[in-house]
Amino acid sequence: MIYVEDQLVKVNGVVLPGLIKKIEVKGAAKIDEQEVEGSATKPKQATGYEDAKITVELILDDTPTRTKYQALEIILAIFRKPGQTVPQPIPIVCEDTAVHSIDKVLFKGISHVAESKKEQLAVSLEFWEYIPQTVKATKASGSGSGTSDSSKDKTASSTLSEDYQNYLDTKRGVSPASDAVTQAGSAGLQRVADMPF
Hints:
Shape: flat
Radius of gyration: 32 Å
CATH topology of the largest domain: Elongation Factor Tu (Ef-tu), domain 3
Number of helices: 6
Helix content: 25-40%
Mean pLDDT: 79
Structural class: alpha+beta
Largest sheet: 7 strands, antiparallel
Oligomer: single chain
């Protein structure tokens, strides 16, 4: 038997081994249905797009250079590297995903089936499109009333209960490290200054 592996899909810099049986790229819109009292029809509101889902089905067979299980290990190393605890976005190079403008994916799932009558492994891979979320930083604006920080402190303290405010106003002590420095005086300060960092 002449066995030629496909070179159609590259994931995280690694060409997927085996014969590609099927590639499916599925995209969908997000549409909400609204309930309108007294109406038989439900108005629909488009809210965006869902991340595309990519399914790749492979057939792994023994080749002169490796067994089908060695080929499966290559795919498993892409799915989860040793010590990896969270899936990371990975690049994908494939004509079918490029048409959909997908260049990064999350490796969602992998499954394989070994049939006793066949000497092949049927492998199914599932990827989800990765679209990074950008968070815009905004500068916090002041109250605009021109109040000073001291008036803000007074406003904050006025919202505290009277018992808690009394507690804050009492001398509650200092930390043990601070006591040691205070008791030792300037010699203690010199000791702290001489400590290596």
